[in-house]
Amino acid sequence: MRLSRYFMPILKENPKEAEIVSHRLMLRTGMIRQQSQGIYSWLPLGKRVLDKVNKIIREEQNRSGAIELSMPTLQSAELWQESGRYDAYGKEMLRIKDRQDRPMLYGPTNEEMVTDIFRSYIKSYKDLPLNLYHIQLKFRDEIRPRFGTMRSREFMMKDAYSFDLTQEGAVHSYNKMFAAYLRTFTRLGLRAIPMRADTGPIGGNLSHEFIILADTGESEVFCHKDFVNFDIPGEDTNFDDVAGLKSIFDKWTSVYAATSEMHDEAAFNAIPEGDRLSARGIEVGHIFYFGTKYSEPMGAKVQGPDGKEHAVHMGSYGIGPTRLVPAIIEASHDENGIIWPASVAPFDVVVINMKAGDQACDEACETVYAALSKAGKDVLYDDRDERAGTKFATADLIGVPVQIIVGPRSIASGEVEVKDRKTGARETMTVEAAINRLAG
Amino acid sequence: MRLSRYFMPILKENPKEAEIVSHRLMLRTGMIRQQSQGIYSWLPLGKRVLDKVNKIIREEQNRSGAIELSMPTLQSAELWQESGRYDAYGKEMLRIKDRQDRPMLYGPTNEEMVTDIFRSYIKSYKDLPLNLYHIQLKFRDEIRPRFGTMRSREFMMKDAYSFDLTQEGAVHSYNKMFAAYLRTFTRLGLRAIPMRADTGPIGGNLSHEFIILADTGESEVFCHKDFVNFDIPGEDTNFDDVAGLKSIFDKWTSVYAATSEMHDEAAFNAIPEGDRLSARGIEVGHIFYFGTKYSEPMGAKVQGPDGKEHAVHMGSYGIGPTRLVPAIIEASHDENGIIWPASVAPFDVVVINMKAGDQACDEACETVYAALSKAGKDVLYDDRDERAGTKFATADLIGVPVQIIVGPRSIASGEVEVKDRKTGARETMTVEAAINRLAG
C-alpha cells in the first residue's frame, strides 16, 4: 500500500478525551473514529488489525472443532421471553420496535437464538457434541461507554455455544475452549490468565475469565506468579483427547487466581508473599458452563442412547475482538507509539523513502516494495512528500514491526537500513539482503 | 471437514414457504434459517459461500484502489438531519431510541456517515481521489420481505464511496467501479448487464444497475443481445488509465439496456427484432454519481489548487452479497440441486464414502481427504453412516463442483470415480490420479 494513496489520518495532537494509552494511540494513528457515544468506525489501519485478530480467533476456534455460522444482529423479543431474560436483562438491552410494532432487540449475546437453531434441527445425541460460533456485532447500551473500543456500546464478539448430552461431555467442550483460548491469546502476543469468575447474567456455575495484566485494567485481580511460566498447548493439541485437555485445564487452574468478585483473601494469603500477584487486569475472554439453563425452558432436547429425551448441556464462550485490539496496545507500546506483535500488525514492514523524488531512493523503494509484496508480505510504502523526520515518527507511532529506511546517502552505496521497531536495533545491508531477510 | 462432525441440516421436504428456487434450495441445504420475518442466520454451509463471495468482492475493490474500513450499524439521527434524509427516508428506516432517549437508526446506507468521516480529516485536494468501502450489515424495514435473503430486512452490503475534486475526476472514479463490478460478477460466475437506472432515494443523475437475467427477477429489463459477447476487463486493467476505463464504460454502454423505469420503447424498437432481449432480471449491484448532493449541505470541502474551497464530488457503489448468493443459485442449478461456480463453492470437492466402516473404503477416503486438505483444498468428507444413495443425493443437492466416489468394488482394484457435478460426467481413475487431478 502506497501511503500517498492510503487513508490513514494521523492526528498531530493527543486527543484530550482519551484517558488511557490505547484509546489515545488508536485515535492518533487514525485506527478508529467515534461516530456516536460508544459507537466507532474502524478506519483502514484499525480494520487491518481487527481482521488479523479475527483470523487468529477463527483459526483456533476451527482447530478446536467449533463450526462457524453467522446469526443476525436483530432478534425478536419472543425468544428472550422464552428464556425469561427479556425482562431480566435491564437497560443495557437495546429494545426496538419495527414498522409493524413488533418488539425486537439488538442482540447483546446469542444464547437464546443459538438454542432456537439447535432445537429446530438436532434431535439425536448422535449429532453431538456440537459447538457453533460466530463473530458478530453486539450492542449493549452501557450507561458509561469509555476507553474507546475497550468498552463501547456497539462491539464485536466471537461467541461460541457448545451442546452436549451430558455434563461430562459439556466439561470436555469447556476444556476445548479453555485450551483454544490459551492458544488464541498467545498467538495475539498476550499472556492471559484464566480466573474463576462470577457468571453474571449468563448464568451457570462454572466460569473463567481470561485476564491480561495492565495498569489500566478495570478489574482487580489476584493470582500466583507461576502463571507466567505455564506451557501453552501446542498446535498439535488433540482436542478429542479428554484426559489430555483435562490435564491442561487442571494445570492452569492448579494455583490461585481470581477476580475481586471471587477473591478469597485467606487462600491468597496462603501463597508465599513473594509469589503473590495483585494487579489490575483487562478481561479479554469469558467462558461459561451453564448446564440446562436455556435448553430446559426452550425445549432443546435430544433423544439419548436410552431412547429418552434429554435437555442438552450447554456452555458459551466469548472473546471481544474490538476490545482485544486496545488490550494488545495496552500491553505493547512505548513513548513513541504502538509496538504490534507481528501476528496482528497492520503491515509486516514499512518502507520509508527519506527523499521522495530522488531517483535512486525512488527506485530502491519501488524494488523493495514490489519484491516484498510479491512475497506475500503486507507492505506499507511511505512515498509521501514529507520530511524524513515526520516519516520516522509516523512509522514508530503506527508500530509496524520492521522499517526499511532508504536514504540518498546510503543508497549511493546500494545500502538501506533495517530497523526493528521493538528494540530500536538498526542494521545496514544491501537492498537484496533486506529483501531476503524480510521475504521469508 | 468431516460431515459427521459438521452442522449441515439438510431438509427432506421442500419448504412450503419458499416461492423461488434459490430460497427453496438455500433452506433445503441448510444454508440459511429465518429467525424473524426477513432476518436470517447464515448456517455453516451458507456462511462459507458468503465468505467466498465477499472475498472476491474485496479483492476487486482493492484492485481498483478502493480502501476498506468498517462503519458501525447504528447511526445517530443528527447526521441524517444534516443531509435532509432523516424525514425523507420513510418507514424503511428502522428508528431507535437509546437508553438516554437519543434518536438513532440502523443504517440503511452510509452516505452521511462516510461524508462525516471525510470532512473530519480531509482538507486538501492533494488527498484525492479517495474511495472508501465497507462490507457491513444494513437494515431496511421492507413491508414485504420475501424470497429468503434475496429481499431481506437485515442484509449485507458492500458500499463504496468515492470523493473527487471535480466532476471529471468523479466520472473516472465511477468508471473504476464500473470496471471492478464487471470483473466481480464474472468471477462470481455471473454475467451482469449494466443498465441505466433511476437514482431513487440516493439521488444524482448518473446511475447504473447491474442486472443478471433470471425468470424470477423482480425487475423487467430490456437490452440488446450483444452484451453476452462483450469482453470483461482483465486482471491487468490499469485503474489509473482514464481513457482506458472510459473506453470500457463506453463499450458497455454503447448498446441499449434499461430497466422498466428508464425504458424508452422507441429506442428499444430501433434494435433489429432478433437482437432485442426483453426479460426479467435480478439487480445485484447499483452505482451512483451524485455530485455534491451530500458534500454541499454537510460541508465536505477541500482546498483546491486555486486556494479556494470546493465541495467534493461523490459517488456511491453498492453490491449485496446476501442477495448475490441466491442470485447465483437462480442462475446455476438443476433438478437435483445447486451447481456452484468453483469460485464460490462452499467446498472444492466432496469425498463420498459409499460404505463407511469398510476398511478399504475408509482408508482410501482418509488418504484422499488428507492429501487434498494438505494441498489447500476445502474438502467435505461424507463419512456418515448413511446409504450411498442418500450421500449421492446430498452431494448433488449442495452442488460441490467435484465428487470423488469411493466404493468397495472399485477400490478393490485401487480405483475411485470422479464426477463433475455440472456435466454429470464420470471418470474412473486410481486414487493417486484423482488426488493429482484435484490437488492442482
UniProtKB/TrEMBL annotation, chains A, B:
- Record GO cellular component, one term: cytosol
Q: Which residues form the Aminoacyl-transfer RNA synthetases class-II family profile domain?
A: 37-341
> One of this protein's Pfam families, by short name?
tRNA-synt_2b
E.C. numbers: 6.1.1.15
Name the UniProt key words of this record, in alphabetical order: Aminoacyl-tRNA synthetase, ATP-binding, Cytoplasm, Ligase, Nucleotide-binding, Protein biosynthesis
Q: Which reaction(s) does the protein catalyse, per the Swiss-Prot or TrEMBL entry?
A: tRNA(Pro) + L-proline + ATP = L-prolyl-tRNA(Pro) + AMP + diphosphate
Q: Where in the cell is it found?
A: Cytoplasm
GO BP term (any one): prolyl-tRNA aminoacylation
Q: Which GO terms describe its molecular function?
A: ATP binding; proline-tRNA ligase activity
Enumerate the InterPro entries for this protein.
aa-tRNA-synt_IIb (IPR002314), aa-tRNA-synth_II (IPR006195), aa-tRNA-synth_II/BPL/LPL (IPR045864), Anticodon-bd (IPR004154), Anticodon-bd_dom_sf (IPR036621), Pro-tRNA-ligase_IIa (IPR002316), Pro-tRNA-synth_IIa_bac-type (IPR004500), Pro-tRNA_synthetase (IPR050062)
Family annotation (PANTHER family): MITOCHONDRIAL RIBOSOME PROTEIN L39/PROLYL-TRNA LIGASE FAMILY MEMBER, PROLINE--TRNA LIGASE
HAMAP family this protein is in? Answer: Pro_tRNA_synth_type2 (MF_01570)
Q: Which family does it belong to?
A: Belongs to the class-II aminoacyl-tRNA synthetase family. ProS type 2 subfamily.
Q: How does it assemble?
A: Homodimer.
User: Main role?
Assistant: Catalyzes the attachment of proline to tRNA(Pro) in a two-step reaction: proline is first activated by ATP to form Pro-AMP and then transferred to the acceptor end of tRNA(Pro).
The molecule here is called: Proline--tRNA ligase
The species this protein was found in: Rhizobium hainanense
The encoding gene: proS
